[in-house]
Every structure is written in structure tokens, then in C-alpha cells.
Amino acid sequence: MKGIVLAGGTGSRLYPLTRIFCKQLLPVYDKPMICYPLSILMLGGIREICIISTPKDLPVIREFLGTGTDLGLQFTYIVQEKPEGIAQAFLLAEEFIGGDPVTLILGDNVFYGDYFYHERGFARSVREFSEGGLIFGYYVSNPHEFGVIEFDRDFRVLSIEEKPAQPKSNYAVPGLYVYDQTVVGICKALKPSHRGELLTYS
Fold first, then answer.
1. Are residues 39 and 129 in the same domain?
2. CA–CA separation, 107 vs 174, rounded Å?
3. Is the same domain home to 70 and 168?
4. Which among 5, 13, 149, 175 could disulfide-bond with 109, CB atoms 3.0 to 4.6 Å apart, if both were Cys?
5. What DSSP line would sit under 3-23, residue for residue?
6. How far is it, in rounded angstroms, from Cα 55 to Cα 53?
7. Residue of 47, 57, 3 lying closest to 25 (CA atoms)
8. pLDDT for the residue numbered 155
9. How far is it, in rounded angstroms, from Cα 182 to Cα 174?
10. What is the pLDDT of residues 24-79, one digit of tens each?
11. What is the 3-class SS of 64-81, one letter each residue?
12. Distance CA 184, CA 182 (A)
């Protein structure tokens, strides 16, 4: 299993601070924001990690994180010239992914809770993953403001809808995905959304 941290975007909602600072390196409590998604991948036993970010921010992130060897990790860095959706990250990282399954996590989301630190939680999900995909959901009271997951009775994902007027559940997509090695081929067949983004869901 390999990991991808998608640390793109301009951080426009944090202007003017992000005009001069990288959003993912802004402090959240006692560490830079990007350390939180990295720690989730590490809890899953993932050691080969690709960091994808903008031409402006990637050099600063690389200077901060280095090669990863001091953390027992191996970092690969890839520039995302223009943010065009989550699926674009898999296409950019095609060579890095190779024939392995991959976990993608957004670089500006903070994940917490017992599930991530329990032996039978996230680490087990990653360890036992074999094929298809896993999409993590988080219960919210205002689902119309998020990408919302629709499930069947067995919690298999039927659809994900972005900011629906009539949400089909209260579970939002927090930005943590696990896919098998077929994900790159699937992403190559996708067509851009009306916003010009390649989405891993429709």
C-alpha cells in the first residue's frame, strides 16, 4: 500500500495569510497542518508517500519534510500545475503508484478519533484491503454543505453527491480514500465535471 497526500489549492479562504504562507504548513495546535494527514497514513502502516502540491508550495513543503528518512518514510514530490480534482492526483502519481493499492488523503483535513488509533480500526482496514475501494464517511448535521455519500443496507457506496439540495444521508466525505491498483485506469476514462474537475465519483 502506498499513500498520497493531496496538498493542492490556493488556500483562498485563508487570505491574506496564504498569500505568503503555505496553507498546509500553517500551525494547527502544536504542529503544521500537513503532519496530521501524514500521521494517519503512518498509522495505517504506509511508508511510501507521494506529496502533490502547487508549484508555489511544493518547494516549501519539500524543505520542511525532506526525504522522509528521519521518519522512516520515503517521500516522492509531484507538482500539480492546476487543481483539477482528486482523480487528477492519481493520474499525476501513476508512475509512483505502479501496481500497488493506494490511500489518498487530503492535506488540509485533520482526522481524529478512536478509529484511527485502535488496532481494529484504520490500520486493520488498510491491512485487510484487497480490491475495489473504500471511502470514509463522517456524520454531519448539515450534509447539504458537503459531498454526501449514499449507501445501501450493507454500507456499500451507491453514489456521492456534492452539496445536494436533498441529501441522501448525513455522511460527508472527509477526504480519505483507499483504492486498488485499477484506480489509474478508471481515472483515465473519466470526463471533467461542469467545474472542470476530474472526480472519483459522479
1. yes
2. 11
3. no
4. 175
5. EEEEE-S--GGGTTGGGTS-G
6. 7
7. 57
8. 85
9. 22
10. 888 889 899 999 999 999 999 999 999 999 999 999 999 999 999 999 999 999 99
11. HHCCCHHHCCEEEEEECC
12. 6
pLDDT under 70: residue ranges of the chain = 10-20, 192-202
DSSP E strands, the chain: 2-7, 27-28, 31-32, 48-53, 74-79, 102-106, 133-135, 138-139, 147-151, 157-162, 171-172, 176-179
| Domain identity same for 70 and 114 | yes
Q: How high is the pLDDT of residue 45?
A: 92
Cis bond upstream, residue 27 (ω within 30): no
The CATH number for 111's domain is: 3.90.550.10
Q: Which domain holds residue 168?
A: 137-173
Stated pTM of the model: 0.87
Based on the domain organization, do 108 and 17 belong to the same domain?
yes
CA distance 194 to 125: 33
